[in-house]
Amino acid sequence: MSAPQRFLERLPARRGDEPSWVAARRQAGAARFEAIGFPTRRDEEWKYTDVRRIADGDFGLATHADYDRDQFESQRLALDAYQLVFVDGRFNAELSDLEGLPAGASVQPLSQAIDQDAEAIGGSLGRLAGVDFSPFTALSTAFADEGAVIRLAPGTVVEKPISLVMLSRANDVPVMSHPRVLIMAGANSEATVIEHYLGEEEAANFTNVVTEVLLERGAIIDHYKLQEASLSDLHIASIHVDQTRDSRFNSFNLSLGGALVRNDLVADLNAEGAETGYNGLFFVQGRQHVDNHTLVNHNAPRTFSNENYKGILDDRAHGVFNGKVYVKRDAQQIEAYQNNANLLLSDRAEIDTKPELVIYADDVKCSHGATTGQLDEEAVYGLRARGIDEPMARALLTLAFAGEVMEQVKLHAIAERVERAVAGRLPERFNLADLVETAEAVQEA
Amino acid sequence: MLEVKNLHVTVEGKAILKGLDLTVNAGEVHAIMGPNGAGKSTLSAVIAGKDGYEVTQGSILFEGRDVLEMEIEERARAGLLLGFQYPIEIPGVKNIYLLKAALNAARAARGEGEIPAPEFMKLVREKSAEMKMDPSFLQRAVNEGFSGGEKKRNEILQMLVLQPKLAMLDEIDSGLDIDAMKVVAQGVNSLRNADRAILLVTHYQRLLNHIEPDRVHVLVDGRIAKSGDKSLALELESRGYDWVVEESAA
After folding, report:
1. Nearest CA in chain A to B95
2. What residue ranges in A169-287 does DSSP mark as E strands?
3. Which residue among A4, A11, A62, A404 is the one 20 to 30 A from A366 at the CA level?
4. Separation CA A84–CA A251 (nearest Å)
């Protein structure tokens, strides 16, 4: 049996009352996935990322969504948020909390949305992430029956963040999940959505998530993806964004966990005034592998994008950054800025970085740059000259490197958590967490 | 406290210091003056352990310890601090991180525990007020985007927090307007006490109107050509350096 067949064999029997469009798409997804199979390194898009660890695996499907509440409470973000909680892809109603959600905002598990609001979501689900995008979106289309659907009526402003918590459990047999996230932001609506991946330390599951974000005129979405899953988890994600006039999408892609993490970000700026911000930070150690593929399509004049991705790589970790900016013919007066900087803490760490600009218009402002290097030795000396020993000096400078991305993070709880995680994982463990705390205390005093 | 004997230093093969002797006792303020290129900055840089300076002869003792055998950070922890002529920018590292990490490192070297957070907060707020620095500076990256004057004030702030035994200040007055100079001089003067020594490296006498030295040394061609009290600085101000150069050549 081929690898795709082995995966597809796990497809559950479908309920008889499933809407026919859902069944048809599943079949299309399965057929596509079976035909193309898993990508290999011969595929340009997967040149640096080997997915055999996934393809050779045997993953079941979770049979329940239980998760210890105390453990969950100790792990969750210290943040007042509406939250939907999923465990190995299954919805956990007990841990979820949507109390106080404003009228005009609807947040539902996908299963419920399919049952109750098929008409409203049918046209949008899968519109941006078709089965042709990648083998993994095809696989997702075949399997997906759970996830989150967020709909904002025009003018709705959701003040508190909406947190989608995706927990991965340490199972006897590894499982796979294929969550879908669909965000439909009506005209001039605003919300912050967090996808938070975490779980039990021994978890070794496969998550294949697809997120689609549709922004109507003037809508503003801040999207956080915080990857803190176990160091054995395998994670494939794609985020697809469709923007109309004057809409703003801000992505924060913060990746600390996982054995293998691949993120694809695609934003289509389809009308004047649309703006996209891509902010990324990853910190990998051991043999972790993180691959970020980003794409911004400037399909209309006077659209704006700004991208800043930073990577910190230690031990034998491997990072990939492939950032593409595409400016369509006659998409004049666009602005596109891209920056990628990587810090190698070890001689054996590796980064493959490839910024690409493809421009078919002549009146544009674009810049891109990629740097990879070690710490600034002059700065190391500056710290040592004040009595700080060398490992601590290097730790401080590494934290500072990450800080440039974290400064853009508007949610303090996330910035603080990531800063502490970086501080706590530095090669020489000093009391940096304590320093961070003091700095915060002084600021608040 | 500090004893420099027959110090010879080369930079990229070129002899800069050629047999320099200097003794600084606790409680004293010394000014090292001299024409450009005489080796003024080299002296403080060597004591602080900056890269690129080769000591070919001589010794530096600080409280009886062989400074040249100590790591850069050990020197700082022992109480030897250099305020840079061109303060180093440390991208992204907040001032407050540097101050706390440095202070705790010095305390640990003395066998003391970490400073309690409230005490530290009080200390840094007080000292930044003394240097007329807004507390927001504490949250900013060390010297990043600071004006020349802000950088110099920041160097003194570090001294005020870390309380070195020997504070060496290299051209701390360069690039300062008169108001900033007063603030910096006030900061330096507040460091003066019976247990501490201060070594000022300066080209101009004007700083010494604000920080009165006990001893003034004129460095010419890698050696101390003349030493005196503060009146020597005034003489240099009115007569320039040439006469000392000629005298030492004779």
Report:
1. A439
2. 175-177, 180-185, 190-199, 206-215, 220-227, 234-243, 248-255, 260-269, 275-284
3. A404
4. 20
